[in-house]
Design brief:
The chain has 174 residues and is α+β, with helices and mostly antiparallel strands. It is 25% helix and 15% strand. The structure holds iron/sulfur cluster (2 copies).
């Protein structure tokens, strides 16, 4: 059954008037598949191993740009092993997505606010870096790790422990 579309369809007999207008060289190109062969020539030229650009990820991890912003990390002081976060909440206020939640309580002895939990919803993050810039103690850092996939939506919500541990990329051996 033919549809009402304007042009000829697949399997329709060739239009003799059109073939005449096409001219002999054009017709010969089609008969001898010249365009196809030219395309294949380009394809096969790039089969030379020198021309292969495939990255062997994950065996070879790509170098990301120096300014790349990836997985967040909540830094701890390497000398004392205590968090560098002072629970000021500035990162949460700076975030346009409101995805950071900082929980704290006041230590009655020292009269200082102490961090109790920190959650970061990676699924909503656009890695703009505003939170990192707002942090006065460099506690929050967007690292160069780019492997952020998880099997569940809950897996994209990182708590304080996960953030302090930092990204743990799987290392593959060759
Ligand atoms: S990188 Fe941007 S979107 Fe992501 S948590 Fe920080 S401020 Fe929010
Ligand atoms: S801005 Fe920095 S110090 Fe303040 S709550 Fe966020 S991570 Fe902690």
């Amino acid at each position: 059954m033919r549809s009402d579309r304007a042009g000829p369809g697949f399997g329709d007999p060739p239009d003799n008037g059109k073939l005449a207008a096409m001219g002999m060289p054009s017709l010969l190109r089609k008969v001898f598949l010249v365009d196809l062969l030219q395309g294949l020539k380009v394809t096969f030229r790039y089969q030379d191993p020198k021309e292969i650009y495939t990255e062997q990820y994950p065996l070879e991890r790509p170098q990301v740009a120096e300014r790349y912003r990836g997985a967040p990390r909540l830094n701890v002081n390497p000398d004392t092993d205590e968090t560098m976060c002072i629970a000021c909440d500035l990162c949460a206020l700076a975030c346009p997505e409101n995805l950071i939640v900082v929980s704290s309580e006041r230590n009655e002895k020292t009269r200082r606010k102490e961090l109790t939990n920190f959650t970061y919803d990676l699924s909503r993050c656009m890695f703009c870096g505003l939170c990192e810039d707002a942090c006065p103690t460099d506690a929050l850092e967007l690292t160069q790790d780019f492997e952020l996939a998880s099997y569940t939506r809950d897996g994209a919500i990182w708590d304080r422990e996960t953030l302090e541990k930092g990204p743990q990329p799987t290392l593959y051996r060759k």
